[in-house]
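From the pipeline queue, job 12 of 40. The input is one protein chain; the requested action is below.

Action: predict structure.
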Amino acid sequence: MKKDSKDIKGKGYENIQKWWTTFANSVMKDYTKILKHKDYRGDKIIKHDYDQMALNEPKCRYADIFCIDDTRVILKREFGNIGKDGTEKTDFIHANWITQKRMHQKYILCQGPMENTVEDMWEMLYQENVGALVMLCNAQENGLEKCVTYWPEGQQSYGPYNVKLVNKIETILEESEIREFEITPPNNITRNIFHFQVKHWPDHLAPDDPTYLLRLLKECKRYSNGRVIATHCSAGIGRSGTFVALQYLYVGMREHGVSEPMKLINDIRKQRHGAVQSYIQYAYCLVALGELFAEKGILTRNELHDKVLKNYKIYLKKTFYQIHKRTKRKHTKKPEFMVQDTNIENN
């Protein structure tokens, strides 16, 4: 018996068609305002006791970005829990698991390493058998530190972990670099990891090419080969949240029949506080999602599709101008806009 085309295209086929039509015919600036709605913030119900502990607070880059207790990555300290200074290490790292039923790929969202968390980062990568690590920021942006350089150009030890650069890989991904490292702990069981560094994604903004996210995700999956994918920017919620949201929304809408993307963003935020930080990042995620649905044959690349791409380009240009203008005007020593300030483009 021949299967109905709707069955082939997934459970949420009709909902996806309706959503896309609504999104395409909306004013993008207005459509994305839901990102800031009080029903989807959830700050008051988040349990985050561990990031407030005295020994863990110095490991948090931003005071207003919480590490949710229920989904946090717990460091097992398999190769010793005493630091160089003789004090006991805690099991804390500012990182959270992102999972969803029927989403076979597992993700970790984490903040960009600081000087005092580099060893923890390599421990997490080894412990959780991470196959690909995606860095979506530069170490310095607009004169501010977003992340320390936590990898070696040759070979270096970070606590009990010896990390060796074994290969620099050519890539078709524009303004991106791929490195392969070997991580070897005292038991001499080596694991390799591929490090993707993306250099052209500005803080609070988004790339101008909606297909870039798809291509990046494909490459990460190809190199990770079924293992965990971890990603960080500076806070580990904006650019990183947008990266993870693409597949999360795809599975949620196609496999679970969810009709409203923001409900799925809210699910991610219950696992990683504040994920998808700005309106333009949400818009980018939705446009990239449309590209993914089109690639899978669920949506058609037609005039409606072209309309979305055109609207996104206009919205991105206006957003860039507004953020650039405000950044020049705002003389502050704060390392980054606070979370509640990142949505200025729709204010």
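Job complete. The chain has a mean pLDDT of 89.
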